[in-house]
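Comment thread on ticket #2218

A.B. wrote:
> Attaching the input chain for the structure job we discussed in standup.
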Amino acid sequence: MLEIPGQELLREQLERSVRTGRVAHANLISGPSGAGKTNLALEIAQALNCTADLVPCGSCNQCQRIVTAKHTDVRLIGEAGHGVSIDEIRELQQDATLVPFEGRNRVFVIIDAERMSGEAANSLLKTLEEPPANVYLILLTSNPAALLSTVRSRCRLIEIRPLSPKLIQTYLEEKHGVDPKLAGLISRLSEGRLGWALEAVANPHLIQDRGEQLDSILDLMSMDYSGRLVRSGELTDRYARNKQSLIEWITLMRQWWRDVLLRKSGRTGQEVNIDRSDQIQLFAETCSIIEAGAAVRDIGATIQRLGQNANARLALDVLFLELPQLSTTTTASAVGLEG
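C.D. wrote:
> Ran it. Output below, let me know if you need it in another format.
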């Protein structure tokens, strides 16, 4: 059976499609970064090639080769944060004409499909319209609206919705044996993204790296304008080849200011960064609710501009000059509280 915790209706629909042999040959899986889109795509690929009676079993040779990226008939195309070129699409189209080598079906998973070049997207249309038998295309996106309407209209939309922190915490404890305290923290930090939560369990450095990024965000708040412009240039250079990583850094900043805004509004207990409650309180005591609300709005607008390919350096310059300027004592104390 497909394992899609908290998405019962979606699971039932997909399992019914597999049982009746009516899986769409062109699918578009939509959900936020870290929602588990790639995992779901691979589960569908397993279901289309599994040799057990109840598919996907996860343990047969076909399922194991797919999950370990060794299956010759299942290919992941593209890389998170990067575009998909016309040459990659042309190679896909050529491979799609070949009969399956070791399984029943060939499955092509296109990562960050919204980042396909216009030429690549238009080239893919013919294959989406008339995919060969035994060929399935699965496009992954966190922004369906950024795809060509002609591409979207030829795919079956599969939406992964955010899960509740409680559901994720229970899943991590019961299915993966995670300590309840750590499971509670990860479930809140995940913001409903099961894929991110599972990655955090497998890679403890993910939370550590996230903490270091938060410290750099707090440090930014005490900088004067010239210091902020220097930091803008440093970030632009660091993420020059991966704008998605830059967007994730700024998204973390929005998350922080949203927590401050929630605390200022008296909605204690709804914050994401529950491991930094004292720091959130310190910020909430230092800035006004108007400043916190403006910060959330300004950061959100910047994320939207970057998603529309605005100049990264200019977008950061403008944002950093708009953000509240707090005292060095406040931010140093906040970082000290974490340490």
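A.B. wrote:
> Thanks. Noting for the ticket: The first strand starts at residue 26 and ends at 30.
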